[in-house]
Design goal:
This protein has about 325 residues and is of the alpha/beta class. The chain is built from 9 helices and 13 strands. It has a 9-stranded mixed β-sheet, with helices on both faces. The protein has a two-stranded antiparallel ribbon with strand order 2-3. A two-stranded antiparallel ribbon has the order 7-10. A hairpin with a 5-residue loop joins strand 12 and strand 13. It is elongated.
Length: about 325
C-alpha cells in the first residue's frame, strides 16, 4: 500500500513539473482529474504567421485574396454567359379567300439561319412584330426592349424590299415587296444600332441596311443591269458566282487567303446607290454588283448579299463564312451590358 502511495506522489510531481515553463498551472478535468496541458504559445502569435506580421498586414492580404476570388468569379461568369441573338421574322400575309392557318398573319424564321447562328453555341430568339395598339392583346413592349435585352441582331432573307421604302414606284406589280416587313425591320435595325449592338444582314437584310441609311436598290438586276451575269436562277441556293474583296475592306482582312471566292447567288434586287457612311465590302466578278456592305459609324453593322447559312463550314467550293459569324459574335460579346 505504501508503495502505491509513493507512485501516485511521483506522478503528481511529474505533472506539476510539466508546467514550470511558464505555460500556467495544470488544468483540471471533470472530477478534479488533471487534463493534457495546454502547449500553445502563451499570449503570442500563432506559429504559422510570418515573423513581424501585424494585424494590418494580415488584413490587407485577406482583403486582396477576397478581391481576387470575386474578380475571378465575375470574369468566369461574364465570359461563360451564353450570348442571346435576335433574328428578325419572316412574315406570311393572309391570302385572299383563304381559311384556317393561311388566313392568319404568320411570323417565322428559316431553320438554316437559326442553325448557322446556333453553331457557335448561342441562343437564338425570333423577334416578332409588336403592336402597342392591338385591339385583342395590346402590349407596352417595343423594339427598344428587344434591343436592350438581346446581344445582337440578324436580319434574315425573304421578300423583296418595297421600292416605296426608298421613295420609288415599283416598275412591275410583282416587285411591290413587303412594305409592312420593311417598317418593322427598319425600326428593329435602328433600335439595335442606337443601343450599340451589332447587326448582320443576310440577302434582303443587306439591302435593308443600305436603304435604312438613305441608299437605293436596283429593282431587278437583269432589267436594270442587262450586261450583268445571272444573280438568281431556278437552281436557287445551288446557283453561285465569284466575288472579290476591294482593298481596305474588313472582309479582305477576314479572308486574307482569298483574293477571289465563290458564294451562292439568290437575289434579283441589289444595292444601287450607297447609303450614308456605307462602304462596299465585296463585289461580284466580273460585273461589279455590290455583294457586301458595312456601315462605318457603328462597331459592327454588315450586310452580305449571299446566304452564308447555306455554305458548308470548314471547306467546300463555297466560301466558309464562319469568320464573319465569329466577328459578329465577338462584337456582341464586347458590346453587351
Amino acid at each position: 500500500m505504501a508503495l502505491d502511495n509513493d507512485k501516485r506522489a511521483n506522478r503528481s510531481s511529474d505533472i506539476a513539473s510539466e508546467h514550470t515553463d511558464g505555460s500556467g498551472p495544470p488544468q483540471d478535468g471533470p472530477g478534479g482529474s488533471p487534463r493534457v496541458p495546454d502547449r500553445r504559445a502563451g499570449g503570442g502569435a500563432s506559429r504559422y504567421l510570418r515573423t513581424g506580421d501585424t494585424p494590418l498586414n494580415l488584413a490587407g492580404r485577406v482583403l486582396r485574396s477576397r478581391w481576387r476570388a470575386l474578380t475571378d468569379r465575375f470574369n468566369r461568369d461574364f465570359m461563360r454567359r451564353t450570348l442571346r441573338i435576335g433574328v428578325s421574322a419572316r412574315i406570311f400575309h393572309p391570302e385572299a379567300g383563304s381559311t384556317g392557318l393561311r388566313s392568319k398573319n404568320l411570323q417565322y424564321l428559316e431553320e438554316s439561319i437559326a442553325q448557322w447562328v446556333m453553331s457557335r453555341d448561342v441562343l437564338v430568339f425570333m423577334v416578332p412584330t409588336v403592336n402597342t395598339n392591338g385591339l385583342l392583346h395590346p402590349s407596352n413592349i417595343t423594339m427598344r426592349h428587344y434591343a436592350r435585352h438581346l446581344d445582337g441582331l440578324v436580319l434574315q432573307g425573304g421578300a423583296d424590299v418595297s421600292p416605296m421604302t426608298y421613295s420609288e414606284t415599283p416598275t412591275r406589280p410583282e416587285w411591290n415587296g413587303d412594305r409592312a416587313r420593311d417598317v418593322y425591320e427598319l425600326e428593329l435595325l435602328h433600335e439595335f444600332v442606337d443601343a450599340g449592338k451589332p447587326v448582320l444582314g443576310i440577302c434582303r437584310g443587306c439591302q435593308l441596311i443600305n436603304v435604312a441609311f438613305g441608299g437605293t436598290l436596283y429593282q431587278d438586276v437583269a432589267t436594270n443591269l442587262p450586261d450583268s451575269q445571272p444573280h438568281v436562277h431556278d437552281l436557287y441556293d445551288a446557283h453561285r458566282h465569284a466575288i472579290v474583296f476591294p482593298q481596305g475592306s474588313s472582309l479582305r482582312k477576314l479572308f486574307p487567303k482569298h483574293e477571289r471566292a465563290v458564294v451562292n447567288s439568290i437575289h434579283h434586287q441589289a444595292v444601287k446607290d450607297l447609303g450614308r457612311d456605307i462602304h462596299v465590302e465585296a463585289m461580284s466578278e466580273p460585273d461589279g454588283v455590290v455583294e457586301a456592305i458595312r456601315y462605318q459609324r457603328a462597331p459592327f453593322v454588315m450586310g452580305l448579299q449571299w446566304h452564308p447559312e447555306f455554305h458548308r463550314a470548314g471547306g467546300g467550293d463555297l466560301l466558309d463564312c464562319t469568320p464573319v459569324l465569329d466577328e459578329f459574335l465577338r462584337a456582341a460579346r464586347e458590346t453587351r451590358l
